[in-house]
Specification:
The N and C termini lie far apart (about 40 Å). The longest helix has about 35 residues. It contains three helices and two strands, in the order H-E-E-H-H. The protein has a two-stranded antiparallel ribbon with strand order 1-2. It has about 80 residues and is mainly α. Helices cover about 75% and strands about 10% of the residues. Keywords: Membrane, Transmembrane, Transmembrane helix.
Amino acid sequence: MHYFKNKLFLLALYLFIHILILNLFYGSSEGLSIYWQENFNVKAIVVYILSILVTVGFYSGITRVRALFSEKVKTL
């Protein structure tokens, strides 16, 4: 399983599980509600995947910019 050594894959997996669990439950004054049908429909999964792609892309971009900046600082 070489996927589990990739940091971006682990970040995406963690975010997917995190978003899935957060949107599964809703707490109100009446008590805890579980929205499993709303959570596992196609629209919700597409929104989860799009938000994960944006987050992983942003993280990857920031990481690359930091690496380039640290190389420039070393050469100065």
